[in-house]
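Box S2. Input/output pair 1.
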Amino acid sequence: MREVNLRSVDLNLLVVLNALIQERHVSKAAERLQMSQPAVSRALQRLRQTLDDPVLVRVGTGYDLSARAETLRPQLASLLRNVEQIMQADQFDPKQYRGVLRLTGLDLELILLMPEVLQRLRQKAPQLRVEIVPQIPEHFELLEQGDVHFSITGLNPQTGQDQFRRFEIARTGQICLMDRDNPLAAKEMSLEAYAKASHGLVSITGKGPGFMDDELQKMGLKRQVMLRLANFLSVANFCQGTDLVFTLPEIIGRYLVKDSRLVLRPLPGEFRLPQVVLYLYWHERFHHDPMCRWVRGELNQALTRVSQV
């Protein structure tokens, strides 16, 4: 069997070949394809040269298929159906989909935002499996490597920003969390009192000072960080019964004070801090994926509603 160089073959000829096989007549094939008869005749000549076969043979007053064209008929029909499926956008049916959705984020952020989302996904895509992947300090690498589809975070990627897409899911201010018996809870907190307090710090990356240290440094002040934690979920346990003050996003603080002896107090008025913005990130590799496109729509609606509660 001789090897065919596909780069030298005009694959549009397959469409013409299919019409000729179906119609067994050049003029009728031209009408079917909305082409001129001379153009189809030229295409037939090229097909005959490429296939080394007449394709159509004269019988009586008309034409019929050559033996090879008869053999090619089912193969060609199947091939063209496959090509159409390749070129068409995938159709996503959430009720039938059986794949896996992988997300990452901080434990408390996921607890705050994801339960209602999961209920929504379970109702609309009952066969979809959801995996929550532990967030690592360099969690944008999980997106870049394709290990997760989405990440919830308030951080920005340090490199490769053009690889990532995102939308905002929550916006919140900063607040102080402390034990109700902490002396600072009894009155309005001054900037000096805040700086002198014993502080707890949640460090997602585990590196460097916190953003409040940078803000204090701008004012010529410094605080003492007596406890550094890796996540927000354990803050309440470590803060209760101590003199520690944690500065954290208000949306998280309001969750942590529930059913506890902790209280929330505003930061000193000297601070003019921008709001904390939480985003849903995904990598460009999954931007056109049918499952991810559908999930993004569901997450956008559900997370926006949750963040407004």
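Box S3. Input/output pair 2.
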Amino acid sequence: MEVGRGERLLVLAPHPDDEALSSAGLIQRVFANGGSIRVAVVTSGDAYVDAVKMDTGKKKLSPGDYLAFGEKRLEESRRAAQILGKGFLHLDLLGFSDGALYDSLVSHWRRTSPFRSNFTGFDHVPYRDSTDWGYAQDGKDLLNELVAILKETQPTIISFPDVMEDDSDHAGLGMFALLAVHEWLEQSPTVRIHPKLLAYLVHWPHWPKGSDWGIAQDWTNEPMHLPENLPLRGHKRVCLGLTKREIGVKHDAIAQYATQQRIMADFLSSFVRSSECFTQLAPNNTNRIEAVVEHWQHARKVFNNHPLDRRKI
């Protein structure tokens, strides 16, 4: 995969650590080629129950425990960004609740009916140092936020979760990303160069190799391969080969996520390989975006027809 001179890269991550797992090498390559980077981490990852129990040593958790854990994870993202960007990476920590993204798309679209976390108890962003502190957790506001980021960044490359990810926040953000790109291009007819859309994968059953072995392994000499049973959908798979230095920096960035290293070091280490791979959406092919728009419109129609039964949409 080629990275040109002066690229403007936007990385969209559902949780703290996803930006490093998926795109740390790509981030470094864009910087090395004189480009700019913006990373938006949408949730705080505050509802990983087993990790919170391990972090606190408690069996019975309180809303405050989840909030404190979310603060730790956001701070880990700041430290990882410093390693990846040395102060030049633009980091947005939106601070939404873990688990909010897909529900905000299909069940909590309006500001009058925001998503409320079953863990922290908040229906708005509770983290004071986050970009969206105090914002209602609803789909429309999140979409508007992403469109605003696209307009400000004018990215030439967007790295975002594949809509087929085996995780609701990841799949949900993948859908939001494509909706936001659709709206941005609709509202910006003067945009001449459409961005390269790179869908990454983090959650897929028994993938990557070694991710569920129970002990961290050194995979730095082995390339990444997307799973063979991931549907290609008319697009293509592309990989970026990483230098030893880029691999080392990626390792160091992921190492900042101590809360995750304690509970799934095997999973994290399985992404530190000699390449990063993506599904690149076919140029001039809007089928995927149109399919997501159709899904979104259908969900809103059902939402409007059944206002008292939103959770079943």
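Caption for Box S3: The first helix runs from residue 18 to 32. The radius of gyration is 19 Å.
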